[in-house]
Design goal:
It contains 11 helices and 14 strands. It is α/β, with parallel strands linked by helices.
């Protein structure tokens, strides 16, 4: 292939992205950025490049992040037992202090990465301006300490940052009515924030390459409906992390988020692949009417 052919190929890629850029201009998108992505520095950098690009072309990204792997590393370092109950972290007073410390460091590292790539960012947690109000969550009737249930999302601070052209980076800590800090599942935070912002899209960067249809274990589906997702939740064997994301996806779509994406966060530039190509790099969850974007109309047969 000649150099001119390579340039033409690149131009065609940009041309293909134009209708996506038009349809998503000024739309809010919530991206959940998990521990598995943070483990690989190259992938983490590519995700940040993607998110900065989204911002520069006119979208309004909001990042929600977790930090389970790093939290566990610190707990081990101080000789603290790591305990889970029904896949939820048992969080005593010492543990919530470690959680806050670790998430605070990750938060500022992500802000630094974003600014290195040319956009402005501000790191916050749910305690700031009462953004995430929580109550103590009982897990199957058991008190597991400072582990919270989201009661409400106050979008005032997030909206203000977006209006001032910042990318908000939110860590998954909430605050109770008695001003105690509570640990939260980042998937739940991302879903709740997306609903409160009436986001156009919610993207989960996961460990899986998408959602597989019932009876097919070889190829993930490019698109599934809410009803198909509910069937998979009820009948398929899923790992806990993917199951929780799919439950959050159904809840988000049911409550006004236009589309939810679950993609493999270990693939470099998976955000751009999912948002700006026809079939993406993972699975999109849509409402039962399969409402498509204008630029997808020509591909209705493929996604039906």
């Amino acid at each position: 292939m000649s150099e001119l052919d390579k340039i033409v190929d690149k131009a065609e890629i940009l041309t293909e992205a134009l209708p996506y850029i038009r349809d998503f201009h000024n739309k809010k998108v919530v991206i959940k950025y998990g521990s598995q992505v943070l483990k690989d520095k190259n992938v983490a950098e590519s995700v940040m490049e993607d998110i900065v690009l989204l911002k520069l072309i006119g979208m309004q990204p909001v990042i929600v992040h977790s930090g389970s792997n790093e939290i566990n590393r610190w707990l081990k370092a101080i000789g603290k037992d790591i305990e889970y109950y029904d896949n939820s972290r048992v969080t005593d007073k010492e543990t919530i202090e470690i959680v806050e410390m670790v998430l605070g460091k990750i938060n500022k590292d992500l802000v630094q990465m974003i600014e290195k790539h040319g956009a402005k960012a501000v790191g916050i947690c749910g305690k700031d301006s009462g953004t995430i109000r929580v109550s103590k969550k009982q897990v199957k009737g058991k008190d597991i300490g400072y582990f919270g249930k989201i009661e409400s999302i106050n979008t005032e601070l997030i909206d203000d940052l977006l209006e001032r052209d910042f990318i908000p980076v939110i860590s998954s800590i909430g605050i109770s009515d008695d001003f105690e800090s509570y640990n939260l599942k980042a998937d739940d935070v991302a879903g709740a924030v997306a609903k409160a912002l009436k986001a156009e899209k919610l993207l989960f960067l996961a460990r899986e390459d998408g959602i597989y249809p019932m009876g097919d274990s070889e190829v993930p589906k490019a698109m599934i409906t809410v009803d198909e997702a509910k069937e998979i939740i009820e009948n398929a064997t899923l790992d806990v992390a993917t199951l929780n994301k799919l439950i959050c996806a159904v809840d988000a779509i049911t409550n006004g988020v236009h589309r939810v994406h679950i993609v493999d966060g270990s693939i470099e530039h998976s955000v751009l692949l999912e948002f700006f190509t026809v079939f993406g790099s993972g699975t999109a969850i849509v409402d039962n009417d399969k409402v498509l974007y204008p630029h997808e109309k020509d591909y209705r047969k493929q996604v039906n």
